[in-house]
Amino acid sequence: MDKMKILVIGSGGREHTIAWKLFQSPIVEKIFIAPGNAGTALVGENIDIEVDEFEKLAEFAEKEKIGLTIIGPEDPLVKGIVNFFEEKNLNVFGPSKKAAIMEGSKTFTRDLLKKYNIPSAEYAAFENADKAKAYLKEKGAPIVIKADGLAAGKGVVVAETIEEAEKAIDEMILDKRFGESGTKILLEEKLIGEEASYLIFSDGKNILPMVSSQDHKRIFDNDFGQNTGGMGAYSPAPIVTKELEQQVLKEIMQSTVDAMAKEGRTFKGILYAGLMITKDGPKIVEFNARFGDPEAQVILPRLESDLVPIIQACIDGNLNEKEIKWSDKACCCVVMASGGYPGAYEKGKEIIGLKEASKIPETIVFHAGTKKEDGKVLTNGGRVLGVTALGANIKESIDNAYKAVEKISFERAQYRKDIGQKALKIKQP
User: Fold this and answer.
1) Most buried of 138, 204, 299, 408, CB within 10 angstroms?
2) Is residue 200 domain-shared with residue 296, that is, in the same domain?
3) pLDDT score, position 427
4) Domain that holds residue 36
5) Does residue 184 register a pLDDT over 50?
6) Alpha helices, DSSP H only, in 170-281?
7) By the 8 A CB rule, do 235 and 298 touch?
8) Is 91 buried (19+), middle (13-18) or exposed (0-12) by CB count in 10 A?
9) Interval 108-165: pLDDT, tens
C-alpha cells in the first residue's frame, strides 16, 4: 500500500486511541482528527470541523487528498455519513446508514435477533406509557427500560422495582428525557450473569475477531449509581473462555452479519456485541456499530498488526485474506471523569501530572474530554481521560494503570477504584 493521509472523525477517547494506533503504521503519512482533543494533537493535526458537518468534512477530505476516513462515533454513522462520503467516491470506513440502524434502533435489533433466532432477551416495544405500564405489571420487576434511539450510553434504566420502572417510562415517553430517542422504548427482561464486550471486524460477509474485553458502565464502585458511557475496561475478559468465544463467533457474530446481509443491510465495519454470559449461555444485551469507548483503549494497545490494511480489507470485502496478531499482555483502562458526571459538570479545570503519568512504562494516557488553551490542558467533557496500561497479566495492568492515575489530578476528578476486580475473581487460564 502507498503512504496515505488519514482523517479520523470524532473527539473522544476512542478517536485518540484510533489515531494513536494509526500513528504507528508505516503506511500513514499524516493523520487529521476532526474535531479532536488535546491528546489527538500529539499524534496528528486537529481540524475545527464537527462530526455532523458532513459537507465540510467531505470537502476537507477531497482538498487534502485523504486516502482513508475512519468514523469514530455512532451519531454520524446512524445519520448516514458513510453513504455521504461514498457518493463522493471517498474511501471511508464504517457501516452504511442501513447497517448502522443496529445501533440507531434497539427495536430493529431485537426484531432482527428474534427473526434469526440469535440469543437475546425477551422484550416488547412501546410508544404509549399506559401500555408499557400494563406490560410492566404483567412481567414485574426487575426489568430493563431502554430508549429506542441513541442516548450516549445513558438511555438504559435497570429498574429493581415497579415504581422505579414506572418513573423511567414516564421520564422517557412523557417527559422526553432523551428527546426523540426515547419516544419509543423497550421493556426487556433483566439478563442475569457476567457482562463482556466482544468486537469483530466485518467486510459484510467475513469476520475477524478482536480480543475480549469488559466495560464498567456504572459511575460508582461495585456497579452502583447511574449508567455512564463507560468508566473503565480491561482485556482480556477471563469469563470469555476459548470455548465460549467460538460459540459467540458462530452463533452471535457471524449469524448477525449473515442476517444483516439477508436483510439487504450489508454490515461493513466494526460490530460490537455487549454480551451477558448467562447460565443458558451468551446472550445479546446490545449491539453497537463502532469501536466501544473505553473498550478501544484496551483492545487497540494489544493489537500488534497494522490497523490500516485490516480496515481496508473490510472496505474491499477481502477480510478472509487477512490475519491479525494480538499481544498476550493484558490491558486496563481507568476513566477519570469530571465531578458530577454523568449529570451536570463544570469544564475548564486544569489537568496536572500528564507527563509524569506517561513516563510509567507501558502506560498511555488517552484523552477524551480535553482541550488545550494557553499551553495548558483543560477538562472539556464528562469523561476526561482514559488512563491505560499494559501488564504481563490483568493484575499487573490494573496496578500500572492506577499508578498512573495517582500522578494525575484536576479539580473534582472522580474515578472508580475497582476496575478489573471482577476479572481477578475468575481463575486465570
Assistant:
1) 299
2) yes
3) 64
4) 4-94
5) yes
6) 242-247, 255-262
7) yes
8) middle
9) 999 999 999 999 999 999 988 999 999 999 999 899 999 888 876 668 888 899 999 9
Residue after which a domain boundary falls, among 51, 75, 94? 94
Terminal-residue alpha carbon distance, the chain: 38
Q: State the average pLDDT for the chain.
A: 94
User: How many structural domains is the chain composed of?
Assistant: 4
In three-state secondary structure terms, 231 is coil
Decide if 162 is inside a domain: yes
For residues 340 and 299, membership in a common domain is answered with: no
Nearest to 334 by CA among 375, 391, 277, 380: 391
Residues 220 and 312 in one domain: yes
The total of other beta-carbon atoms located within 10 Å of residue 428's CB is: 11
Cell of 388: 491505560
Q: What percent of the chain has pLDDT over 90?
A: 84
Cα 46 from Cα 151, distance rounded (Å): 26
Is the confidence at residue 42, as pLDDT, over 60? yes
Residues 6+ apart with CB under 8 A from 268: 93, 94, 95, 96, 99, 202, 203, 204, 314, 315, 317
Domain of residue 49, CATH code:
3.40.50.20
Distance CA 93, CA 234 (A): 25
DSSP 352: B
How far apart are the C-alpha atoms of 122 and 69, rounded to whole Å? 38
Number of neighbouring beta carbons within 10 Å of residue 154: 18
| Measured distance CA(48)–CA(34) in Å, rounded | 6
pTM, full prediction = 0.93
Arithmetic mean of pLDDT, 346-351: 97
Is 104 a domain residue? no
Q: Are residues 173 and 200 in the same domain?
A: no
Distance, in Å, from the CA atom of 353 to the CA atom of 372, rounded to the nearest integer, reads: 15
In this structure, the answer to whether residues 162 and 218 fall within a common structural domain is no
Section 416-424 average pLDDT? 94
| Class of residue 237 by CB neighbours under 10 A (exposed 0-12, middle 13-18, buried 19+) | buried
